[in-house]
TrEMBL record:
Keywords tagged on the record: Signal
First and last residue of the signal peptide: 1-20
Highest taxon in the source lineage: Bacteria
Protein name as annotated: DNA topoisomerase IV
Amino acid sequence: MKQILVLLSLALLTSCYSNQRDCTDFKTGTFEFTYTIDGTEHTSQFKRTDTLNIDYHEGHADSSSVRWINDCEFILKKLHPTTNAEKEAIHMKILSTTKDSYVFEYKRAVKRPNRPTRVEKGVAKKVD
């Protein structure tokens, strides 16, 4: 009986926890994002307005349109894709927020048949 009470108490305590998700502060602004390619860490910046996202990476700017689904989810589509892969839209979802950053995940907006869906996560920090 004691074991059931302990398990029930733990279940109640863990079910009360929820991530903070105030996404409206992160719809627009300038952000920094750190990622790793082949073991090397890189940092890039991007600027987002209500309808446009501009990535700045290694001296190059790349623009995408932004279409908000709700306050925490949006679709990015490259304005000038150079490859077939860049023509595919990306679904971005803000999972949790802090005062000056947010955790997000992204994947292809349209699932490819007979292929597993690849979901990546990251953290963006608001710099302006």
